[in-house]
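Severity: low
Component: inverse-folding endpoint
Summary: output formatting inconsistent between runs
Steps to reproduce: submit the following structure tokens with default settings.
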């Protein structure tokens, strides 16, 4: 994966609606954008809004996403709407002393839960919501001991399947765990890691079902992080076997100029809502300045 010198990468969130298949880009109608602020903030022109997850609750559509300003830790913010026209102001619903991102939200018989990415802690954490989803309390540690990224759970045939990613020799590895109890121990799948590579091994959104087929969004990060996203069709998902095949290669390259790395859908008010994010590039003056200063100091010492 290439590093982009003197280029600052940010993300912005975009929400669409469609009456067609979520894979038909021409049918996507933009209904809301949450864009990064390009102004200079605390000596670093960085603001990121990314990883949007949709959730329908009490006749409202909720959007949870990561927000990071400058070099501060990312927090989880939320907006909601009753009609996709009028939206609430963003509020911070989860903040910790370490970085948070990828706020995967799901409902279970025990309540409404979130698995935010807490990779810096080398674990996967589960949080539980209050009634209006404005407060989230730590519930349990699902896994620990590795740098797990972009984790989500899919309940299928009475089994909880946990998809998560680690890195081995600079390549993403998609691991699969399962448990019959959300509060029980998760066992690694006999086929895990189920796939490896920087174009396949990291999820770019939750596993979802559409027209009786299961799909997995996967980030494409061969040339740079956030380059694009592909959709894989899961053909077999069981405690003994896992198989998938490519459905659409580099979907978001066709939607956004510089690509994007997230895809999530939800049914709301008889419409299919799609949440994604787009990569944006700006010149990073401070990285350039820092490089020049280091070079000058090196020359002076000679």
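Observed output (run 2 of 3):
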């Amino acid at each position: 994966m290439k590093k982009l010198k003197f280029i600052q990468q940010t993300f912005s969130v975009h929400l669409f609606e469609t009456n067609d298949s979520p894979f038909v880009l021409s049918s996507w109608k933009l209904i809301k954008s949450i864009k990064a602020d390009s102004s200079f903030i605390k000596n670093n022109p960085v603001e990121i809004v990314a990883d949007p997850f949709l959730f329908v609750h009490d006749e409202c559509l909720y959007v949870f996403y990561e927000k990071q300003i400058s070099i501060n830790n990312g927090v989880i913010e939320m907006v909601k709407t009753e009609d996709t026209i009028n939206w609430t102001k963003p509020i911070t619903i989860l903040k910790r002393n370490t970085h948070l991102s990828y706020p995967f939200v799901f409902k279970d018989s025990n309540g409404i839960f979130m698995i935010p990415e807490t990779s810096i802690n080398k674990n996967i954490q589960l949080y539980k919501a209050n009634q209006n989803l404005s407060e989230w309390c730590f519930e349990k540690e699902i896994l620990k001991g590795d740098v797990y990224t972009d984790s989500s759970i899919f309940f299928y045939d009475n089994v909880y399947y946990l998809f998560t990613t680690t890195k081995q020799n600079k390549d993403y590895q998609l691991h699969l765990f399962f448990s019959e109890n959300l509060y029980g121990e998760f066992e690694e799948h006999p086929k895990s890691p189920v796939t490896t590579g920087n174009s396949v091994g990291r999820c770019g959104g939750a596993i979802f079902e559409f027209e009786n087929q299961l799909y997995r969004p996967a980030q494409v990060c061969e040339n740079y992080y956030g380059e694009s996203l592909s959709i894989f069709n899961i053909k077999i998902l069981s405690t003994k076997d896992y198989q998938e095949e490519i459905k659409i290669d580099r979907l978001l390259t066709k939607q956004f100029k510089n690509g994007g790395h997230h895809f999530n859908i939800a049914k709301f008010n008889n419409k299919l809502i799609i949440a994604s994010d787009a990569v944006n590039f700006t010149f990073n003056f401070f990285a350039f300045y820092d490089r020049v200063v280091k070079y000058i100091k090196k020359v002076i010492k000679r």
